[in-house]
Protein backbone atom coordinates (compact mmCIF):
# COMPACT_ATOMS: atom_id res chain seq x y z
CA UNK A 1 0.00 0.00 0.00
CA UNK A 2 1.34 3.40 -1.00
CA UNK A 3 0.70 6.69 0.75
CA UNK A 4 -0.43 9.19 -1.87
CA UNK A 5 -1.23 12.88 -1.93
CA UNK A 6 -3.67 13.88 -4.66
CA UNK A 7 -4.09 17.61 -5.20
CA UNK A 8 -7.26 18.87 -6.85
CA UNK A 9 -9.06 15.79 -5.57
CA UNK A 10 -12.51 17.33 -6.03
CA UNK A 11 -11.70 18.15 -9.64
CA UNK A 12 -12.57 16.07 -12.68
CA UNK A 13 -9.26 14.24 -13.16
CA UNK A 14 -8.19 14.33 -9.51
CA UNK A 15 -11.39 12.64 -8.40
CA UNK A 16 -11.10 9.82 -10.92
CA UNK A 17 -7.41 9.23 -10.15
CA UNK A 18 -8.04 9.20 -6.40
CA UNK A 19 -10.90 6.72 -6.75
CA UNK A 20 -8.78 4.36 -8.82
CA UNK A 21 -5.90 4.58 -6.32
CA UNK A 22 -8.28 3.77 -3.48
CA UNK A 23 -9.71 0.83 -5.43
CA UNK A 24 -6.15 -0.46 -5.74
CA UNK A 25 -5.79 -0.37 -1.96
CA UNK A 26 -3.63 2.72 -1.55
CA UNK A 27 -3.95 5.34 1.16
CA UNK A 28 -4.99 8.71 -0.27
CA UNK A 29 -5.02 12.15 1.25
CA UNK A 30 -6.79 14.52 -1.10
CA UNK A 31 -6.71 18.28 -0.96
CA UNK A 32 -8.79 20.88 -2.80
CA UNK A 33 -9.78 24.48 -2.18
CA UNK A 34 -13.30 23.94 -3.59
CA UNK A 35 -13.19 27.26 -5.43
CA UNK A 36 -16.19 28.61 -7.30
CA UNK A 37 -14.75 28.48 -10.85
CA UNK A 38 -17.67 26.14 -11.52
CA UNK A 39 -20.47 24.51 -9.51
CA UNK A 40 -19.08 23.66 -6.07
CA UNK A 41 -21.90 21.16 -5.51
CA UNK A 42 -20.54 19.06 -8.37
CA UNK A 43 -17.18 19.00 -6.59
CA UNK A 44 -18.82 18.01 -3.32
CA UNK A 45 -20.76 15.25 -5.05
CA UNK A 46 -17.52 13.86 -6.46
CA UNK A 47 -16.07 13.82 -2.96
CA UNK A 48 -19.12 11.91 -1.72
CA UNK A 49 -18.14 9.09 -4.07
CA UNK A 50 -14.83 8.80 -2.20
CA UNK A 51 -16.21 8.91 1.35
CA UNK A 52 -16.93 5.13 1.61
CA UNK A 53 -13.21 4.35 1.27
CA UNK A 54 -11.69 4.04 4.72
CA UNK A 55 -8.21 4.91 3.44
CA UNK A 56 -9.35 8.30 2.15
CA UNK A 57 -8.96 11.63 3.91
CA UNK A 58 -10.06 14.96 2.52
CA UNK A 59 -8.57 18.27 3.59
CA UNK A 60 -9.90 21.56 2.27
CA UNK A 61 -6.73 23.50 1.60
CA UNK A 62 -5.43 26.06 -0.86
CA UNK A 63 -2.05 25.46 -2.45
CA UNK A 64 -1.14 29.14 -2.13
CA UNK A 65 -1.24 28.75 1.67
CA UNK A 66 2.43 27.96 2.13
CA UNK A 67 2.23 27.42 5.88
CA UNK A 68 -0.62 24.91 5.68
CA UNK A 69 0.90 23.00 2.77
CA UNK A 70 4.25 22.91 4.54
CA UNK A 71 2.55 21.52 7.64
CA UNK A 72 0.76 18.89 5.55
CA UNK A 73 4.03 17.60 4.17
CA UNK A 74 5.65 17.70 7.61
CA UNK A 75 2.87 15.63 9.16
CA UNK A 76 2.66 12.97 6.46
CA UNK A 77 5.16 10.79 4.65
CA UNK A 78 3.98 10.54 1.04
CA UNK A 79 5.42 7.94 -1.30
CA UNK A 80 3.99 9.72 -4.32
CA UNK A 81 2.44 13.10 -4.99
CA UNK A 82 -0.07 13.32 -7.85
CA UNK A 83 -0.38 17.04 -8.45
CA UNK A 84 -3.58 17.48 -10.47
CA UNK A 85 -4.81 20.78 -9.05
CA UNK A 86 -4.81 23.76 -11.41
CA UNK A 87 -6.83 26.65 -12.64
CA UNK A 88 -8.02 25.21 -15.94
CA UNK A 89 -9.41 26.75 -19.11
CA UNK A 90 -7.71 28.55 -21.97
CA UNK A 91 -10.35 31.25 -22.50
CA UNK A 92 -10.79 31.99 -18.80
CA UNK A 93 -7.05 32.75 -18.58
CA UNK A 94 -7.59 35.74 -20.90
CA UNK A 95 -10.16 37.21 -18.52
CA UNK A 96 -8.66 36.26 -15.15
CA UNK A 97 -4.88 35.93 -15.56
CA UNK A 98 -3.95 36.27 -11.89
CA UNK A 99 -6.01 33.19 -10.99
CA UNK A 100 -3.55 31.19 -13.10
CA UNK A 101 -0.51 32.76 -11.52
CA UNK A 102 -1.81 31.90 -8.04
CA UNK A 103 -3.06 28.37 -8.70
CA UNK A 104 -0.66 27.15 -11.36
CA UNK A 105 2.60 28.88 -10.53
CA UNK A 106 2.48 29.54 -6.78
CA UNK A 107 0.62 26.25 -6.29
CA UNK A 108 3.29 24.30 -8.16
CA UNK A 109 5.97 26.00 -6.10
CA UNK A 110 4.47 24.96 -2.77
CA UNK A 111 4.13 21.38 -4.02
CA UNK A 112 7.75 21.29 -5.21
CA UNK A 113 8.98 22.65 -1.89
CA UNK A 114 6.88 20.16 0.05
CA UNK A 115 8.23 17.27 -2.02
CA UNK A 116 11.79 18.51 -1.71
CA UNK A 117 11.78 18.83 2.06
CA UNK A 118 9.88 15.63 2.81
CA UNK A 119 11.73 13.21 0.55
CA UNK A 120 8.85 12.34 -1.79
CA UNK A 121 9.96 9.54 -4.11
CA UNK A 122 8.04 10.70 -7.19
CA UNK A 123 6.09 13.80 -8.15
CA UNK A 124 3.68 13.28 -11.04
CA UNK A 125 2.01 16.48 -12.23
CA UNK A 126 -0.53 17.54 -14.83
CA UNK A 127 0.69 19.46 -17.82
CA UNK A 128 -1.32 20.08 -20.99
CA UNK A 129 -1.33 19.65 -24.76
CA UNK A 130 -1.77 23.43 -24.90
CA UNK A 131 1.97 23.88 -24.28
CA UNK A 132 2.62 23.02 -27.94
CA UNK A 133 1.14 26.39 -28.91
CA UNK A 134 2.31 27.50 -32.35
CA UNK A 135 3.87 24.13 -33.09
CA UNK A 136 2.11 22.72 -36.17
CA UNK A 137 4.11 19.49 -36.49
CA UNK A 138 1.72 16.54 -36.20
CA UNK A 139 1.39 14.51 -34.11
CA UNK A 140 2.59 16.57 -31.17
CA UNK A 141 5.73 14.90 -29.87
CA UNK A 142 7.55 15.44 -26.61
CA UNK A 143 10.76 15.42 -28.65
CA UNK A 144 9.63 18.76 -30.14
CA UNK A 145 10.19 22.05 -28.37
CA UNK A 146 7.20 23.67 -26.68
CA UNK A 147 8.39 27.23 -26.25
CA UNK A 148 5.69 29.23 -28.03
CA UNK A 149 2.45 28.95 -25.97
CA UNK A 150 -0.42 31.13 -27.15
CA UNK A 151 -2.40 31.43 -23.92
CA UNK A 152 -1.44 32.27 -20.36
CA UNK A 153 -2.85 28.92 -19.25
CA UNK A 154 -0.45 27.15 -21.61
CA UNK A 155 2.42 29.33 -20.44
CA UNK A 156 1.80 28.39 -16.80
CA UNK A 157 1.75 24.69 -17.71
CA UNK A 158 5.02 25.01 -19.61
CA UNK A 159 6.42 26.93 -16.64
CA UNK A 160 5.44 24.02 -14.40
CA UNK A 161 7.56 21.71 -16.54
CA UNK A 162 10.55 24.04 -16.28
CA UNK A 163 10.08 24.47 -12.54
CA UNK A 164 9.95 20.70 -12.14
CA UNK A 165 13.17 20.31 -14.11
CA UNK A 166 14.96 22.79 -11.89
CA UNK A 167 14.01 20.78 -8.80
CA UNK A 168 14.90 17.48 -10.45
CA UNK A 169 18.32 18.86 -11.36
CA UNK A 170 19.10 20.81 -8.19
CA UNK A 171 17.59 18.52 -5.57
CA UNK A 172 17.35 15.15 -7.33
CA UNK A 173 13.54 15.14 -7.02
CA UNK A 174 12.10 12.63 -9.52
CA UNK A 175 9.38 14.38 -11.51
CA UNK A 176 7.12 13.34 -14.38
CA UNK A 177 4.93 15.75 -16.31
CA UNK A 178 1.92 14.44 -18.21
CA UNK A 179 0.52 16.47 -21.09
CA UNK A 180 -3.19 15.68 -21.13
CA UNK A 181 -5.13 15.92 -24.38
CA UNK A 182 -8.80 17.11 -24.18
CA UNK A 183 -10.02 14.86 -21.41
CA UNK A 184 -13.74 14.02 -21.28
CA UNK A 185 -16.10 11.64 -19.49
CA UNK A 186 -18.49 11.29 -16.55
CA UNK A 187 -18.16 13.87 -13.77
CA UNK A 188 -16.49 16.25 -16.25
CA UNK A 189 -16.22 20.01 -15.89
CA UNK A 190 -19.19 22.19 -16.90
CA UNK A 191 -16.90 24.53 -18.87
CA UNK A 192 -15.79 21.73 -21.21
CA UNK A 193 -17.21 21.32 -24.71
CA UNK A 194 -18.93 17.97 -24.21
CA UNK A 195 -20.65 19.14 -21.04
CA UNK A 196 -21.80 22.42 -22.57
CA UNK A 197 -22.94 20.78 -25.80
CA UNK A 198 -24.92 18.10 -23.96
CA UNK A 199 -26.62 20.63 -21.71
CA UNK A 200 -27.54 22.91 -24.60
CA UNK A 201 -28.84 20.13 -26.87
CA UNK A 202 -31.06 18.71 -24.12
CA UNK A 203 -32.42 22.17 -23.38
CA UNK A 204 -32.98 22.98 -27.07
CA UNK A 205 -30.50 25.83 -26.95
CA UNK A 206 -27.87 26.56 -29.63
CA UNK A 207 -24.32 25.31 -29.24
CA UNK A 208 -21.39 27.55 -30.13
CA UNK A 209 -19.01 26.07 -32.70
CA UNK A 210 -15.74 27.84 -33.37
CA UNK A 211 -13.81 28.02 -36.64
CA UNK A 212 -16.62 26.44 -38.61
CA UNK A 213 -16.29 23.21 -36.65
CA UNK A 214 -13.02 22.50 -38.45
CA UNK A 215 -10.97 22.35 -35.28
CA UNK A 216 -9.58 18.89 -34.53
CA UNK A 217 -9.17 17.56 -31.04
CA UNK A 218 -7.55 14.44 -29.63
CA UNK A 219 -10.43 13.68 -27.26
CA UNK A 220 -9.25 11.30 -24.53
CA UNK A 221 -11.60 9.38 -22.26
CA UNK A 222 -11.03 9.80 -18.54
CA UNK A 223 -10.42 6.09 -17.88
CA UNK A 224 -7.53 6.13 -20.35
CA UNK A 225 -6.06 9.18 -18.63
CA UNK A 226 -6.34 7.50 -15.24
CA UNK A 227 -4.69 4.34 -16.53
CA UNK A 228 -1.75 6.38 -17.78
CA UNK A 229 -1.37 8.19 -14.47
CA UNK A 230 -1.56 4.97 -12.45
CA UNK A 231 1.05 3.25 -14.61
CA UNK A 232 3.50 6.14 -14.75
CA UNK A 233 3.56 6.75 -11.00
CA UNK A 234 5.53 3.52 -10.57
CA UNK A 235 7.99 4.47 -13.33
CA UNK A 236 10.23 6.68 -11.23
CA UNK A 237 12.65 8.65 -13.43
CA UNK A 238 16.37 8.18 -13.05
CA UNK A 239 19.32 10.05 -14.50
CA UNK A 240 19.57 9.58 -18.25
CA UNK A 241 23.26 8.80 -18.85
CA UNK A 242 22.76 9.08 -22.62
CA UNK A 243 21.28 12.59 -22.48
CA UNK A 244 23.40 14.94 -24.57
CA UNK A 245 23.44 18.61 -23.47
CA UNK A 246 24.77 19.56 -26.91
CA UNK A 247 21.73 17.99 -28.55
CA UNK A 248 19.15 18.02 -25.74
CA UNK A 249 15.95 15.96 -25.88
CA UNK A 250 13.22 18.16 -24.33
CA UNK A 251 11.33 15.30 -22.67
CA UNK A 252 14.30 13.89 -20.78
CA UNK A 253 17.34 15.12 -18.92
CA UNK A 254 20.50 14.22 -17.09
CA UNK A 255 18.25 14.84 -14.08
CA UNK A 256 15.47 12.43 -12.96
CA UNK A 257 12.91 14.21 -15.14
CA UNK A 258 10.48 13.05 -17.82
CA UNK A 259 7.63 14.44 -19.93
CA UNK A 260 4.96 12.31 -21.66
CA UNK A 261 1.81 12.85 -23.69
CA UNK A 262 -1.44 11.10 -22.77
CA UNK A 263 -3.98 11.16 -25.56
CA UNK A 264 -6.15 8.90 -27.69
CA UNK A 265 -3.91 9.31 -30.77
CA UNK A 266 -7.15 9.61 -32.77
CA UNK A 267 -8.03 13.28 -33.39
CA UNK A 268 -11.42 14.04 -34.92
CA UNK A 269 -13.17 17.12 -36.25
CA UNK A 270 -15.32 18.92 -33.72
CA UNK A 271 -18.24 18.63 -36.16
CA UNK A 272 -17.84 14.85 -36.20
CA UNK A 273 -17.66 14.86 -32.42
CA UNK A 274 -20.95 16.76 -32.32
CA UNK A 275 -22.54 14.24 -34.71
CA UNK A 276 -21.56 11.42 -32.35
CA UNK A 277 -23.08 13.35 -29.45
CA UNK A 278 -26.30 14.00 -31.37
CA UNK A 279 -26.69 10.28 -32.07
CA UNK A 280 -26.06 9.44 -28.43
CA UNK A 281 -28.65 11.95 -27.20
CA UNK A 282 -31.09 11.26 -30.02
CA UNK A 283 -31.53 14.92 -30.83
CA UNK A 284 -30.06 17.33 -33.38
CA UNK A 285 -28.15 20.35 -32.12
CA UNK A 286 -28.99 23.92 -33.02
CA UNK A 287 -25.66 25.29 -34.18
CA UNK A 288 -24.19 28.79 -33.99
CA UNK A 289 -20.90 29.25 -35.84
CA UNK A 290 -18.30 31.63 -34.45
CA UNK A 291 -14.76 32.61 -35.47
CA UNK A 292 -11.59 31.14 -34.01
CA UNK A 293 -11.14 32.13 -30.38
CA UNK A 294 -8.06 33.70 -28.83
CA UNK A 295 -5.76 31.03 -27.41
CA UNK A 296 -7.21 28.18 -29.49
CA UNK A 297 -5.12 25.93 -31.72
CA UNK A 298 -6.41 24.33 -34.91
CA UNK A 299 -5.53 20.74 -34.06
CA UNK A 300 -4.22 18.56 -31.26
CA UNK A 301 -2.81 15.10 -31.91
CA UNK A 302 -0.85 13.15 -29.31
CA UNK A 303 2.16 10.99 -30.00
CA UNK A 304 1.82 8.46 -27.18
CA UNK A 305 4.56 6.06 -28.29
CA UNK A 306 7.06 7.08 -25.56
CA UNK A 307 4.47 6.46 -22.82
CA UNK A 308 3.57 3.12 -24.39
CA UNK A 309 7.22 2.10 -24.48
CA UNK A 310 7.66 2.78 -20.78
CA UNK A 311 4.31 1.59 -19.39
CA UNK A 312 2.56 -0.43 -22.10
CA UNK A 313 -0.15 2.24 -22.11
CA UNK A 314 -2.64 2.16 -24.96
CA UNK A 315 -5.87 4.19 -25.12
CA UNK A 316 -8.79 1.76 -25.26
CA UNK A 317 -12.07 3.69 -25.19
CA UNK A 318 -13.62 4.60 -28.54
CA UNK A 319 -15.05 8.09 -28.84
CA UNK A 320 -18.55 6.69 -29.51
CA UNK A 321 -18.45 4.67 -26.30
CA UNK A 322 -16.96 7.46 -24.23
CA UNK A 323 -19.54 10.01 -25.35
CA UNK A 324 -22.38 7.55 -24.67
CA UNK A 325 -21.07 6.96 -21.14
CA UNK A 326 -20.94 10.68 -20.50
CA UNK A 327 -24.48 11.22 -21.75
CA UNK A 328 -25.72 8.37 -19.56
CA UNK A 329 -24.00 9.91 -16.53
CA UNK A 330 -25.29 13.40 -17.33
CA UNK A 331 -28.88 12.22 -17.66
CA UNK A 332 -28.64 10.30 -14.41
CA UNK A 333 -26.93 13.08 -12.46
CA UNK A 334 -29.37 15.79 -13.57
CA UNK A 335 -32.41 13.57 -13.97
CA UNK A 336 -33.09 14.55 -17.59
Protein traits:
336 residues, alpha/beta, seven-stranded parallel sheet, two-stranded parallel ribbon, 13 strands
Write the layout of secondary structure elements.
Elements: E1 3-7, H1 12-23, E2 27-32, H2 40-50, E3 56-60, H3 66-75, E4 80-83, H4 90-95, H5 97-118, E5 122-128, H6 152-171, E6 175-180, E7 183-184, H7 193-203, E8 206-210, E9 216-217, E10 220-221, H8 222-233, E11 257-262, E12 268-269, H9 270-281, E13 286-290, H10 305-311, H11 319-334
**Total DSSP E strands:** 13
Could you give a short account of the major beta sheet?
Answer: 7 strands, parallel
Uncertain regions spanning at least 5 consecutive residues: none
Structural class: alpha/beta
Concise account of the structure shown:
The chain is built from eleven helices and 13 strands. By secondary structure, the chain is of the alpha/beta class.
Amino acid sequence: MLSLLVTGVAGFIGFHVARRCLELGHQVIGIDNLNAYYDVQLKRDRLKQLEPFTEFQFKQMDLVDRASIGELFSNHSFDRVLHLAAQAGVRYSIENPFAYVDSNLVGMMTVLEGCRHSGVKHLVYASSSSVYGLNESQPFSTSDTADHPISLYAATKRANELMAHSYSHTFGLPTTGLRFFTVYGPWGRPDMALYKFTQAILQGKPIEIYHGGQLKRDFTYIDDIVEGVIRIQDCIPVLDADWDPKNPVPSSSSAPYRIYNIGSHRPILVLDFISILEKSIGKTAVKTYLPMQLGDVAETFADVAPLAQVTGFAPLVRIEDGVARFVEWYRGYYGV
